[in-house]
Amino acid sequence: MTTFSDKTALIIGGSRGIGAAIVRRLSADGAAVTFSYAGSAEASAALAAETGATAVRSDAADRSAVIDLVSAAGPLDILVVNAGALVLGDPLELDADMVDRMFDINIRAPYHAAVEAARRMPDNGRIIFIGSTNGDRIPFEGGAAYALTKSAIQGLTRGLARDFGSRGITVNAVQPGPTDTDMNPGDGPMSDLMHTFMAIKRHARADEVAGMVAYLAGPEAGIVTGALHTIDGGFGA
Ligand code: NDP
After folding, report:
1. Is 146 a catalytic residue?
2. What gap in Å lies between CA 236 and CA 174, rounded to an integer?
């Protein structure tokens, strides 16, 4: 028996980065894992072969696809909504369609996925959103639209915790700081600037974030809900 040996989990956006680390961790801990991806078919096939998880192509920007994905996954013990887009830049110059697509992926998908999952989720299920420390603090220019999406996750987390609490379903957000992924490489152009804001001046590893997700998904966290769990090296301290 391992922690999640009788549990089913869906990770929305699991092909790369933090999502892939969550797929690896929950699979290693015994869950029957399904994960979605949008473009990375090869990486998804490799991850599925490595972990035994099931990969499904589904665009998180498409509301119907999100609802169909969750519905088809059947009753879920654990839902993790990780898929995220990052559009940074001068708000006077940004492409409005790109900003709206980010809103679809980062705000609408978590809402509709969580509501659809809750329809069939057994008592004591787990809903976990991947937010960001930027939901609390955006200490550089060009991040207003992204920060908006991660602040939205905070309200969603608190509200749904109230809605589903009577069933023992917990709803939490994990708020990473700079984490070494394709979205934010540890040796990327903004790394030095980001490290100036941090008490521990390095990017997190994706598996460190996955460890927090595993705790929230696990049996010890049944009374933890409606909460924002920041893992950011002191970025927001
Ligand atoms: P990556 O860009 O490295 O990976 C993003 C993942 O999300 C991929 O698996 C990608 O799939 C999937 N995804 C993106 N768009 C869609 C979509 N439309 N439909 C389905 N899947 C999609 O990002 P990270 O791992 O860095 O970020 C994961 C989450 O963590 C995001 O919500 C991000 O905002 C948040 N975060 C990241 C931080 C960081 O420093 N890295 C800091 C704070 C928060 P595919 O490969 O198919 O495109």
Report:
1. yes
2. 14
Ligand 1 atom nearest the C-alpha of 20 is: 9
Quick one: 8-231 is in which CATH superfamily?
NAD(P)-binding Rossmann-like Domain (3.40.50.720)
Instruction: Please report the atom of ligand 1 found closest to the CA of residue 61.
Output: 18
Q: Which of 57, 183, 193, 235 to mutate to test the pocket of ligand 1 (most atoms within 8 A of CB)?
A: 183
Indicate the helix (H) or strand (E) that contains 26. Answer: helix 17-28
* CB 228 within 8 Å of CB 154: yes
Q: Which ligand 1 atom sits nearest the alpha carbon of residue 62?
A: 18
Q: Does pLDDT of 1 surpass 80? A: no
Q: What is the pTM of this model?
A: 0.98
Neighbouring-strand partners of residue 179: 204
Torsion over CA of 188, 190, 193 and 195, rounded to 10 degrees? -50
Closest alpha carbon to 137 in 226, 222, 228: 228
Beta bridge partners of 36: 56
The model's pLDDT over 161-217, given as tens digits with 9 standing for 90+, comes to 999 999 999 999 999 999 999 999 999 998 999 999 999 999 999 999 999 999 999
Ligand 1 neighbours (beta carbon < 6 A): 13-19, 36-40, 59-61, 82-86, 105, 130, 132, 176, 178-179, 181-184
d(CA 70, CA 10) in angstroms, rounded, equals 8
Report the distance separating Cα 111 and Cα 90, nearest Å.
27
